Amino acid sequence: MTYNNIFLNTNNHITTITINRPNKLNALNIETIAELHEAFKTLENDRNTKVIIVTGSGEKAFVAGADISEFAHFNVNEGTKLAANGQKLLFDFVENLSKPVIAAVNGFALGGGLELAMACHFRIASANAKMGLPEVSLGVIPGYGGTQRLPQLIGKGRAMELIMSASMIDATQALNYGLVNHVTAQEELLPLCEKIANKIALNSSVAIRSAIKAINAHFKDGINGYDIEIQEFGNCFGSDDFAEGTTAFLQKRKADFPGE
Asked: pLDDT at residue 83 above 90?
């Protein structure tokens, strides 16, 4: 498929999705959200891709927010639909993807940009990164999951302050808060993401899929995460990956997981 606002590159079982709207600091518009959905949907079923990295083009921004010009004149129903569709197509979709998704935050991650990064399974930032949810300064709240995921990641009090003050934090503070896992120099950002992705890719994709499902279950209302863990643990025993992993361990060799 041909995309207008993103491009993909696959190497050694790692696919990097780059959001490429440099004139808008990679801001998310409806078209870009749709393209990202299609890309993630395709990669979910691509056996050659084991890990996905998401980043922004250039050195200024990961994603500087949503494209405000698209919704500045929306009414209540249109605004509600915008948030619901966006969450379904992209943010919830990414969070529940069976393949690991790493956000390489290479600059500003504001509003919808930070919400996209938080929907990824974890985040690595360049030293120049700045993060925040400034929506209340526009008379609206985060609508792509920001009010839910930010408290999960950094705690209720810090999330309340960050959202209500519309403040930005730098990469060091994001690391201290636990919002990102690592901070590195701009030029080392993608190499570090790729190093971690390569380590992940060596492991069982079946087990990783089960781990993502079990971890996410803890944060969903009405679902007992321990029950999901038990179910997924048991399901792993029926996989070829489990047979290969245990056999390789007993034979004192590295496992070559078939991914089934």
From this structure: yes
